[in-house]
Amino acid sequence: MDGNGRWAQRQGKPRPFGHRAGAETVRAIVETCADSGVEVLTLFAFSSENWARPEDEVSLLMELFLMMLRRETRRLHANHVRLRIIGDRSAFPEKLRQRIAEAERLTRDNQGLVLQIAANYGGRWDITEACRRLARRVAAGGLDAEAIDEARLADELAFPDLPDVDLFIRTGGEQRLSNFILWQAAYAELYFSDLLWPDFGPDALRAAFVDFASRERRFGRIVEQRQVVE
Ligand code: IPE
Ligand code: MG
C-alpha cells in the first residue's frame, strides 16, 4: 500500500489525511477480495524501515492501526475473516499488542479469507529469524546441518503454513519489493499500479486480477510442461 502521503499532498493536505483515506481503501479491498474468492490477502502496512519516519507520523500510523482493529474486528469476524498480524510485534505499544492478540484469538477459527497485516515486517528479518532458530537447533545437536533444505527453512518462517504469493501488487508507481515477504514471493507475478493507494479501488483490483489471469506461470519450466505444475 503505497502513496498515501503523496495523495494528501497533491490536495494540499497533510500526510495523515492520506493515511486515513488509505484506511478506507483497505476496507474496500478486503471486501472485494473476500467476495472474489481470494484465499489469502497480505497487506504491507508498516515495514521495519518505517520506524525511520518522523515520530509523529509513526505514532499516527500506530493509532490508525489501533483504531482500525477496534473498528473493524467485529465486522471481519462476522464475515468469517481470519486475521493475522505478521511481523515483529515486540516493538509495538502494549495496548496495540493486546488488541492484536484479541483480534487474532477472536477470528482464529474462521474459514473465510485469511487477512494478514504485515506490520513491522521485513522479509530479511523473517529469513534471518528462521536461520537463527535453525542454527540453535544445530548447535543443540537436534538437527544435522546437512538436513537443512528449502522446505526445512520455509518451515521456520514466521508463517510456515501460508501458500506462496501468487500476485504481488504495489501501488504508488514504485517498482520494487521493499523487503516484503521475500521468500514466499520468489515466484510471485508482479503488478505495479501508478494509482496512489487511496485511489486503488475495487475496479483497480479487478483489473489486476484480469492481468494476472493472462500471465503464463511456468515456474522455471517450458510452456509444454505447464500442466505439470498447475
Ligand atoms: C502508505 O503510503 C504506506 C505506509 C507506510 C502506511 P506512504 O506513506 O508511503 O505514502 P507516500 O509514498 O509518501 O506517498
Ligand atoms: Mg511510500
Would you kindly provide a written description of the structure presented here, covering whatever features stand out?
This protein starts with a helix and ends with a helix. The model has no long low-confidence stretch (mean pLDDT 94). Helix 3 packs parallel to helix 4. A 3-stranded parallel beta sheet has the order 1-3-2, sandwiched between helices. The chain has a two-stranded parallel sheet with strand order 4-5. Helix content is 46%, strand content 13%. It has a single domain, classed as Undecaprenyl pyrophosphate synthetase, CATH 3.40.1180. It is built from 8 helices and 5 strands, in the order H-H-E-H-E-H-E-H-H-E-E-H-H. With 230 residues, it is α/β, with parallel strands linked by helices. It is globular. The site of magnesium ion has 2 residues, from loops.
Summarize the structure.
This protein has 230 residues and is α/β, with parallel strands linked by helices. The chain contains 8 helices and 5 strands.
Identify the overall geometry: globular
Given helix and strand content, the structural type is alpha/beta
Low-pLDDT residue spans: none
Order of helices and strands: HHEHEHEHHEEHH
The CATH topology annotation reads as Undecaprenyl pyrophosphate synthetase
Identify the strand order in the major beta sheet.
Answer: 1-3-2
Number of E strands: 5
Topology:
Elements: H1 4-10, H2 15-36, E1 40-47, H3 55-78, E2 82-86, H4 94-107, E3 114-121, H5 123-139, H6 150-155, E4 167-170, E5 189-192, H7 202-213, H8 226-229
Parallel strand pairs: 1-3, 2-3, 4-5
Helix pairs in contact: 1-2, 2-3, 3-4
Bound molecules: 3-methylbut-3-enyl trihydrogen diphosphate (IPE) and magnesium ion.
